[in-house]
Amino acid sequence: MATRKQKTIAQHAGELELIAGIRKRVARLGQAGRGGVRLGIGDDCALLRIKAGEELAVTTDLTLDGRHFRLDWHPAEAVGHRTLARGLSDLAAMGARPVAAFLSLGLPAELTRARRGQKPWVARFYDGLLALAEAHQTPLAGGDLAQSPLAVADIVLVGAVRAELALKRSGARVGDAIYVTGRLGGAALGLELLAQNNGKPRRAAHPELETALGPHLYPQPRLEQGQTLSRRKLATAAMDLSDGLSMDLPRLCAESGVAAEVEAELIPCFPGATLGQALHGGEDYELLFTARPGTRLPKAIGGVPLTRIGQVVARRKGRSVVSLIREGHRTALAAGGWEHFGARG
């Protein structure tokens, strides 16, 4: 029987091997030394450099097995992709460009071992994460690795944005138009398809399966769109749609001290998604933003459409912060998206 000391040495050796493998993959992808990273994995700290006249934007997101994904439902590659996408979406909402990513990963030991001729779960996780990192020129500059009874990933993203041009939630004013990028409800639709078949939807039942599951498994952060809105000063306020339009729009209104009216007929729903999924589904990671009435916005940025869905109005006593107008009738839009520690969380 191995002693406690021997077990600790074995675990330490396994950790070093994993870190060495990750470092080699990052270097092979050309991420070491890219962009604003002067020194990446290998020292006690990473060294970052940003351009003159820029501010740092920093965000962090926690991803938990059983809360944000399920090991028996979600491919490891999708979990890695989603882990990074969540942080990149936050940078997009501020109009920032990615500078570096830092990942702390806690995993049960079995997820680090190969089985049945397949790569270990952790290797496939990094396949997904690093593919998205490469696509958006986001160096993985460091992090931590530990054994854990629960799979958990904590991602920290560092971005840069021109001074005074960061998009914030507090800039909306009465009369502004409200816009979203892309289409809403796709992530909720994909999750529903997985749930209907216990994580294994039948291809025969859903010939468009890969397209339908795409927004849920592989959401695309709107970095180009956010940076364009910031650089060209097109938006007055912005945030990303992570918890659902009905949950996130009131947050933007609260920071700006305004109210909003949304027209149901204008909401761009993902094909097959219901209005309810578009309003309350969450995890679309599209951008929600406002613009002055006379602002000339393009129909699309980087191939992603921009759609006006409503307008900013003054707050009124006795009226909901966000109203939904449908077939000429006004109703209060109750928050129905994701909420940690709440009835829906």
Concise summary:
This protein has helices spanning about 5-30, 75-95, 120-135, 185-195, 210-215, 225-230, 245-255, 275-280, and strands at about 35-40, 45-50, 55-65, 95-105, 140-145, 150-160, 175-180, 235-240, 260-265, 285-290, 300, 305-315, 320-325, 330. By secondary structure, the protein is an alpha+beta fold.
The low-pLDDT segments are 1-13, 202-207, 339-345
As for the CATH topology of the largest domain, it is Phosphoribosyl-aminoimidazole Synthetase, Chain A, domain 2
User: What general outline do the C-alpha atoms trace?
Assistant: globular
Q: Main β-sheet: number of strands, strand sense, barrel status? A: 8 strands, mixed
Total strands: the figure is: 14
- The CATH superfamily of the largest domain is PurM-like C-terminal domain
Total domain units: 2
Strand portion: 15-25%
**Helix proportion of residues, in percent?**
25-40%
Report the order of strands and helices: HEEEHEHEEEHHHEHEHEEEEE
Q: What is the average of the pLDDT values?
A: 87
> Architecture of the largest domain, CATH level 2?
Alpha-Beta Complex
Structure characterization notes:
The protein is α+β, with helices and mostly antiparallel strands and 345 residues long. It has two domains: 31-162, 60s Ribosomal Protein L30, Chain: A, CATH 3.30.1330; 177-332, Phosphoribosyl-aminoimidazole Synthetase, Chain A, domain 2. It has eight helices and 14 strands. The strands form three sheets. Strands 7, 8, 9, 10, 11, 12, 13 and 14 form an eight-stranded mixed β-sheet that branches. The chain has a four-stranded mixed β-sheet with strand order 3-6-4-5. A two-stranded antiparallel ribbon has the order 1-2. A hairpin with a 2-residue loop joins strand 11 (300-301) and strand 12 (304-313).
